[in-house]
Amino acid sequence: GNLPIKKVLIANNGMAATKSILSMRQWAYMELGDENAIKFVAMATAEDLKANAEFVRLADTFVEVPAGKNLNNYANVDVITRVAQEQGVDAVWPGWGHASENPKLPNTLKEMGIKFIGPPGPVMSVLGDKIAANILAQTAGVSSIPWSGSYGGPDDGPLQAELNDEGTIPDDIFEKATCRSVEEAVEAAKNIGYDNGIMIKASEGGGGKGIRFVDNEEDLKNAYIQVQNEVIGSPIFLMQLCKNARHIEVQIVGDEHGNAVALNGRDCSTQRRFQKIFEEGPPVIVPPETFQKMERAAQRLTQSIGYVGAGTVEYLFNADTGNYFFLELNPRLQVEHPVTEGVTGTNLPSTQLQVAMGIPLYNIPTIRKLYGKEDIYGTDPIDFLVDEYVPIDCHVIAARITAENPDEGFKPTSGSIERIKFQ
To answer: From CA 30, how far away is CA 157, in angstroms rounded?
Structure first.
């Protein structure tokens, strides 16, 4: 590596913070013989302290941050960077949620000379835009479902573009995939076809906001206005509905040396209210030869954009036809990453840490072991686009326990668990 990291700020709370500290401490003990080789600084609100939160007790030290909503603390880039500078940390681990996908965080930390354990700001920024992400995927040869940036016809592209010096898609290419008016949306829908139905999406939407399904032109005109008003100012695009699709993920990690590894994947098809309920790996619904193509496509995309760190390439997979289509690339570690750890034997937070230190992926012992290397501490390169990892011989299922209030239309809620029993 090229950057010793001895002190890390955990810019998260709860399970994410607890898991990261435990995982990185375990790695330090197993590889360095000292679980305290890396010092951890936690950010704690008054509520965290009152609850005697586990992650606060696990950390070597903590800094109290403003209470209230996360924009006051864990999602506040100014608070995170100030604490990082005052505490003299070498790196910041963002986890998931909060500020983990805010490009301002890696950009600001870079200016301060502090390592962000995740992808570069410009790459994160472009992946946060669904239109740009789809164009980049097409450029890397990843299949995309018919949409306003590729109708699936012989003469329409698909649209392709390399990142420019600013780390963005050229405006003229971006605009070709965007529907800026009802008239443009109607025209794009004619090219895509209404047979399977069409999704109208706001590029900056998410979590159920800025998305509508239509199957005729009249409904499209009304729904376009609704999406426009729901996510004001966001570019809008159209995409064919993929019926009977499974939600399949490929866990990827890229390093600073241009390598990208695919660490198997997960089937996250069982969802409620746009939230995953069950995640399992490996995704047995996908034939092995097809899944390997999905992995390779994810690796090509990762390499082509200079992605560094852990991320997830998400696909829609049609089990009836065997076709798969790019959905998005999440530029962070996912909640369900322990499924991947279980099936591959890798420790993902520690892998993120080692990548941030500048260590090549093929020098990381757990990855070398996954690829069947006898000398797990060797330094001979692995061609991740050619070599295959050892067969997966286990299956892992993760389930999320969620709370809903039946008196309010099963609205998500919170509360204390009084009794729990697993049989």
So the answer is: 50
- Decide: 216 and 189 in contact? Cβ < 8 Å: no
Sign of the C-alpha dihedral computed for residues 148, 150, 151 and 155 taken in this order = positive
Residues 88-114: tens digit of each pLDDT: 999 999 999 899 999 999 999 999 999
Measured in degrees and rounded to the nearest 5, phi and psi for residue 388 equal -115, 145
- Cα–Cα distance between 258 and 305 in angstroms, integer? 10
Q: Would you say residue 178 has pLDDT above 80? A: yes
Distances (CA, A) of 400 to 163, 397, 406: 37, 10, 18
Residue in 332, 368, 400, 419 annotated catalytic: 332
Closest CA to 236 of 139, 328, 130: 130
The pTM assigned to this predicted structure is 0.91
Between the alpha carbon of residue 364 and those of residues 40, 74, 80, 337, the distances in Å are 22, 30, 29, 18
Contact 23, 375 (CB under 8 A): no
How many secondary structure helices (H) and strands (E) does the chain include? Answer: 14, 18
Does the bond joining 287 to the residue before it have cis omega, within 30 degrees of 0?
Answer: no
Residue owning tokens 């866990």: 251
Could you give the count of Cα atoms lying within 13 Å of 394 in the half-sphere of its Cβ? 9
Q: Are 338 and 398 in contact (CB under 8 A)?
A: yes
User: Residue 94 has which token pair?
Assistant: 């963002």
Q: Show the tokens assigned to 100.
A: 């983990």
User: Does residue 401 surpass a pLDDT of 90?
Assistant: no
What pLDDT does 359 receive? 97
Percent of the chain with pLDDT over 70: 98
SS3 state of residue 405:
strand
- Between 45-59, 138-152, 311-325, 334-348, the lowest mean confidence (pLDDT) is in 138-152
Half-sphere exposure of 400 (CA within 13 A, CB side): 18
Single-letter amino acid, residue 315: Y
Please report the DSSP string for 205-220 in residue order: EETTEEEEEESSHHHH
Range list of H helices, 88-143: 104-112, 121-127, 130-139
325 forms beta bridges with: 316
Helix (H) or strand (E) holding 20: helix 14-27
- Give residue 152's pLDDT: 62
Tally of CB atoms within 10 A around 192:
23
Catalytic residue at 332? yes
